TrEMBL record:
It is found in: Cytoplasm. Involved in the gluconeogenesis. Catalyzes stereospecifically the conversion of dihydroxyacetone phosphate (DHAP) to D-glyceraldehyde-3-phosphate (G3P). GO terms for biological process: gluconeogenesis; glyceraldehyde-3-phosphate biosynthetic process; glycerol catabolic process; glycolytic process. PANTHER family: TRIOSEPHOSPHATE ISOMERASE. It is an enzyme of class 5 (isomerase). This is Triosephosphate isomerase. Pathway: Carbohydrate biosynthesis; gluconeogenesis; Carbohydrate degradation; glycolysis; D-glyceraldehyde 3-phosphate from glycerone phosphate: step 1/1; Carbohydrate metabolism; erythritol degradation. The active site is at 89 (electrophile), 161 (proton acceptor). Its main location: cytoplasm. The keyword Cytoplasm applies.
Amino acid sequence: MGNWKLNGSKTMVAELIKALKVPATECPTVAVAICPPVLFLGQAQTLLADSAIILGAQDASLNTEGAYTGENSARMYSEFDVQYVLVGHSERRTLHQEDDALVAEKFAVIQQAGLTPVLCIGETNEQFEAKETQAVVERQLQAVIDKCGITALNKAVIAYEPVWAIGTGKTATPEIAQQVHADIRAFLANSDAEIANKVQILYGGSVKGASAAGLFAMPDIDGALVGGAALNADEFAAIIQAGA
Ligand code: PEP
């Protein structure tokens, strides 16, 4: 899944989508999704009409409609065939002060609109150094479980994204990521073993074509949430191919 963040232009959207259709078609067993900025969703929807590439959005308002200047609602995304919405991305948590309670509320609103939330969780570098990773991701997950119930994870994706790896070029080793993914499943299994086993857990944090295969070889890593490399057709194609 590619997170384009605040990047793109009409030309870039057209070129990148055209290029990505090739590996997406050649690797039909890999679910490929892209999350362009909201302004490009209409263009992307049109360009993807003949493709299996899925559209996602990067954030959603807590509200469906009304006097909320500048916001975009999950219900509106449905009109653009958006299926996934990122929630709790570290950039939203940090730059927009989105706390666990707000993230859980947004998660609920996204599901109520019939879309699939991609719940982003992960520790900062300080927390990693202090060996607090497990406590942090459990707290972030628990907030959603408290608000929505464990069964809400039947229709959700989790993205483990250590903040120290996002946009830094410092990917977690496959072993480190695998351990956290396994810990996440063990934590969820305390509430529901079947859901823990079934829920898709993506890894995110400086994934590139060269690092993807090692990560995907791990038993509890089900895919990747990709930022920078998702803007480069060759890199993203290599990540798709690594998942095939
Ligand atoms: C992200 O923004 O979710 C991300 C993982 O970014 P990058 O791949 O650039 O680290």
